[in-house]
Amino acid sequence: MTYDQFDLFDQYTNKTLPDAKRQALEDQLRDDPALRDSLRDYQQFRHSLDAVPLNRQLNRIHDRLAAQGFFDENTSDRPPVPLSSSFRRRRLVLVSSVVVLAGLLIGAGYWLTKPTLAEQTFLTYYQPEPVARGEMACSPGLLPGIQLYRTQQYEPALQQFTALSASQPCVSYYVGLTQLATDQPELAVHSLESALKPAITSPPLIRQKAEWYLAMAYLKANQLTKAKSQLIRIAQQPDQPFRNVAQQALADLSHD
């Protein structure tokens, strides 16, 4: 998919494409299977951005509670169960009391470890880069690392990327992307800021993706002011594929 096609599909999906161009595109889609495949790829990309990763949020909350000792993690093939009591419950009223108390403790544990607004927004909108777009404009030397990243083999991917020249914006972008996926937000901020230095010329889509993931890194690092500024910058760009989701994130942050 070319960058022009990406922009065209974005306008088509957002219903901002003029009627004549929309009709022309739909005529092309009927006759061109490759173009239809590209549109499906784009729609998958947009769906991945727009879908709120609820399961990811629940897993993060579960991990926080497990760290507080509320769950037994000795088995990985079934859901965690509450820690058993050291004494046998012989009366129904005692069982009921323990259940109620456990619920109160779990609730207290959640609120004591409740994510900050920045962390909560990060958990809502962050996910690893869902599809490959724009990397063909980068050095072919990045492709092995990108493949490892796509299969969530983050440590080997990071080794591949850091072996390349950090002066390349694509390298800085993928290093930052991988650092963010491995819970290193401060390092990710540094790498993604490097990918966006004004003096550096980078492929347009790589730059736009770096802008988005830098906003995510700011959120993860609890740098809320910088995150908001970055999201505003994204939301003000008409051709930014992350514009809509940045506006949604800003709306969530405004509820504070």
UniProtKB/TrEMBL annotation:
InterPro entries reported in the protein's UniProt record: TPR-like_helical_dom_sf
Keywords linked to the UniProt accession: Membrane, Transmembrane, Transmembrane helix
SUPFAM superfamilies tied to this protein: TPR-like
Name of protein: Tetratricopeptide repeat protein
Transmembrane spans: 92-112
